[in-house]
Amino acid sequence: MDNVRTLGARKNIALVAHDHKKRDMINWVEYNKAALARHELIATGTTGRLIEDQLDRPVKKLLSGPLGGDQQIGSMIAEGKIDALIFFWDPMEAQPHDPDIKALLRVAVTWNIPFACDRATADFLLTSPLMYSSYDCIIPDYSAYIKRSV
């Protein structure tokens, strides 16, 4: 049996950007300033500071990604505290914390939250009418997985 978690009309959006994608993220948040004002923003360290400066509004800032910020966001997703993830990652450069990045994307899929890894998808996500109304997010039932013996 699946579980349902209702995402409110005001979403908690996590924002993450690798170093070579921070400028893209800043441009994107500036372009979407009005839409983002309707939501709560959470971000990893430097990205959060840059966004806060650009939008002149508070952003909940976590640790830098390599210092555990990606894992903090993953934990918040698992706890039901993040409703959407915008993660501008750099596909052309290996990151020292690649396992953390893979884990973050896996947990987003596991908990069935909407996420975007590029600007076009982020634009589609943010302009969806579902971003501005309550939405029942179906979470798969993992009880059989949890109970299985090793």
Secondary structure elements and their pairing?
Layout: E1 3-7, E2 12-17, H1 22-31, H2 33-36, E3 40-43, H3 45-55, E4 60-61, H4 69-78, E5 84-88, H5 98-110, E6 115-116, H6 119-126, E7 135-139, H7 143-147
Parallel strand pairs: 2-3, 2-5, 3-4, 5-6
Antiparallel strand pairs: 1-7
Helix pairs in contact: 1-3, 4-5
Shape: globular
The secondary-structure class comes to alpha/beta
Major beta sheet, strand line-up: 4-3-2-5-6
How many domains would you count in the coordinates?
A: 1
The rounded distance between the terminal residues' Cα atoms is: 23 Å
DSSP strand (E) fraction? 15-25%
CATH class: Alpha Beta
SSE pattern: EEHHEHEHEHEHEH
* DSSP strand tally: 7
Major β-sheet annotation:
5 strands, parallel
Number of helices: 7
Helix content: 40-55%
- Average pLDDT, rounded to a whole number, is 92
CATH topology descriptor: Rossmann fold
Radius of gyration: 15 Å
CATH superfamily: Methylglyoxal synthase-like domain
CATH architecture: 3-Layer(aba) Sandwich
Could you list the spans in which at least 5 consecutive residues all have pLDDT below 50? none
List keywords for this structure.
150 residues, alpha/beta, Rossmann fold, five-stranded parallel β-sheet, two-stranded antiparallel sheet, 7 strands, 41% helix, 19% strand
